[in-house]
Amino acid sequence: MKYLKLKATTFLIAASLASPLAAQEAGGRLDIVVQPEPPGLMLGLVQNGPTQLVAGDIYESLLRYDGDLNPMPSLAKSWEISEDGLTYTFKLNEGVKWHDGEDFTAEDVVFSADVFLRETHARLRASLAYVESITAPDPMTVVFKLKEPFGPFINAFENGTMPIVPKHIYEGTDFANNPANANPIGTGPFKFKEWVKGSHIHLVKNEDYYVDGLPYLDEVYYRVIPDAAARAVAFETGEVDVLPGGSVENWDIPRLAEMDGVCVTEKGWEFLAPLAWMWLNNREGPTANEKFRQAVMYAMDREFMRDVVWNGYGKVATGPIASSTNFYSDDVTIYDHNPEKAKELLAEMGYDGEPVSILPLPYGETWQRWAEAVRQNLSEVGINVDIDSADVAGWNEKTSQWDYDMAFTYLYQYGDPALGVSRNYTADRIKKGSPWNNVEGYENPSLDEKWAAAATMVTPEEREAAYLEIQKEIVDDVPVAWMQELTFPTIYRCNVNDLVTTAIGINDGPRNAWIEK
Amino acid sequence: MTIFAVIASRLSKAILTLLAIAILNFFLIHAAPGDPAVVLAGEAGAADEQMIEQLRERFGLDQPLYVQLGKYIAGIVQLDLGYSFRQGAPVAELIADRLPATLLLTMTAFVVSLAFGIAFGVAAAARVGKPSDTVLTTMALLFYATPLYWLALMAVLVFSVWFGWLPGFGYETVGANYTGFARVIDIAKHLVLPALTLGLFFTAVYMRMARASMLEVSQLDFVKTAKAKGLSDPVIRRRHILRNAILPVVTLAGLQAGQLVGGAVLTETVFAWPGIGRLMFESLAARDYNTILGVFLVSAAMVILFNIVTDIVYRIVDPRIGARS
């Protein structure tokens, strides 16, 4: 029921920033691992994980979100959604300055959303298709008018989705080749200082930050350490203070967590909500048969895989929507570990032992082991499995050209099924050349209509009912084999306080973080 | 032929070789499956056709392969290694950024391994069959056979985690802002573990080669003559045996020296050393064509250069080589 606070009646939230308490201590330096090294820091141009991690301190968006995905003020101090769900009005914080000293105004927001990001940001572009106009009636007000209601639009103001970029630097330039990209200018709590390629990125406190007292930290270093074992050692020796999710292999986590003064949290992934699944090629081979796909689901002991391969971190998936995403329901067919049922289904379809291949995700040893666990489970019910291999570029090539039987992947959900889920299941998203659309080739025209309708319903209640129906139906079809909701624990020293306070966790963590001396 | 004529003829051949290498590399890289635009877009976890098309256009991948090759060759002829669209910087700049760290690491490892390798080899040969010889050769065999990766991790574990004597990774203390001599000391401390790890293997190789070669030469007639003349053992070893025995070591050292610039991917990765080997490896994973080609070309140029240098060293060590040709 996390959408309750989002009722489509007109509402207004006053700026209610965490009031600084006496206990919080200013000063100090935080060393955070960043892996791999980001290709660039201009968040409007590059939105991969490492870039969001570092540039999330430099750039800001209109809103932030708490762990239940409720919007909180950021560059916008208050906002209002009209009753018909068509007009979003934002009042901006006053006295905000860009890192080069220029004033931040509503014109920057209009330019960012309407001009810059429309050209550079594929994911936002999909949401902007619902937008009729973006205007700035006065320097502190921005109005987004939609063509039709689009419920998830309130989630589009997150920093990785709609980072606000400076108009005075980018207007009329070639965005991708603007020399300013090497020296990013944002409004965020930290300023870019230096990037020693292959070693570290140095950010320093923005003394003119518009929230009094913030940030507490004097500086943040993002450290590039390419080897997973070396990253674990860096944390052990005290060289770094924070290991963001996914920095070390899973089997190292318990050992590090047991050290004195070390804390672990699984929070901070609610907005992204990474869900892992295996694409099952719906076009050809045994995987084209629905019974075979169901058999795969029953054959797998996904609890065991979570406990062993992922060291107990994560949650077995029940369907296409992750439990922290809005409109999730577990009122669907549950695929428990049932080898007998799997064998029955295989016998019914007349499976002749034709081998299928599994393509693991080339993101490290954990993923390799996961594929091996699946192979073992499947061979127990009589499915012949080969494990394929490829590096990242090869994996992209094979999946986007549909050259696979079963392939591991995971994708982010961005808080709403219309933003991060439907893109993998509707027929209009079947297109070669991209590994983020309907790669499995699942076609279900009646569901396509329901996905489209659910996105534009006005009230959350209507949407909830529509998504429940969709989840029930699609889970029976098994277009892909849903594996688990991934959680990537953040490991940090316990004297670092308030590091993970929002739905994007450490990506905007240093803003509020403070070190207890 | 004078030494200058040799160099001139070698250099002119070298330019043709380099061009051939550049063309071959170009086709090899493009033959690998994968598309840099999709990799770059993929890291964002979402992309539409418009984005992929934009990226391809920016990278110049929308043009036929021969046009791309033509542009690339035209570039390198003008000493322009191209632009890394992934990193948003000229390739030459990226390489120049990483080169000092790589050279410091590999040169140190090279010099240390050459010096210790020859010294230990000569020492072992002089005491052939004695316990000290057995100890030295056993150690050499051990370091020769141990995987570099394991050795590196153990070194970090022992010297950095357990004893805390030396920093386990990085090039210098991040954020310490040391200057002058303090900085030199700081970098030197960081250099110890990676340079030793990288150097141990080659120390073992040079030592074994030097020892075998010393033993072989010491059986030759001219050594007996020298002894008969009444020269002392140390003088014979240094002036007669070593000078003749060193040639195979020089050959091998020349080969290794050529690879110095290519970096040491494993060592640089484990020790988070910001060198060129990692740049190459990461660019390869991202299919950052221009950067990989740039690193390959610079490495190839260095291999050729060091081959020429090796030939010159031969002539200095053994004047007969120049006289014969």
UniProtKB/TrEMBL annotation, chain A:
One of its GO terms (biological process) is peptide transport. One of its GO terms (molecular function) is peptide transmembrane transporter activity. Residues 71-421 form the Solute-binding protein family domain. It comes from the Bacteria. Coiled coil: none annotated. It is found in: Periplasm. Residues 1-23 form the signal peptide. Pfam families: SBP_bac_5. Its main location: periplasm. Keywords: Signal. GO terms for cellular component: ATP-binding cassette (ABC) transporter complex; outer membrane-bounded periplasmic space. Belongs to the bacterial solute-binding protein 5 family. This is Peptide ABC transporter substrate-binding protein. It comes from Thalassospira profundimaris.
UniProtKB/TrEMBL annotation, chain B:
GO terms for cellular component: plasma membrane. It comes from the Bacteria. InterPro entries: BPD_transp_1_N, MetI-like, MetI-like_sf. Residues 99-314 form the ABC transmembrane type-1 domain. The keyword Transport applies. Keywords: Cell membrane, Membrane, Transmembrane, Transmembrane helix, Transport. GO terms for biological process: transmembrane transport. It is a multi-pass membrane protein. The chain crosses the membrane at residues 103-129, 141-167, 187-207, 246-272, 292-314. Belongs to the binding-protein-dependent transport system permease family. This is ABC transporter permease. It is found in: Cell membrane. Pfam families: BPD_transp_1, BPD_transp_1_N.
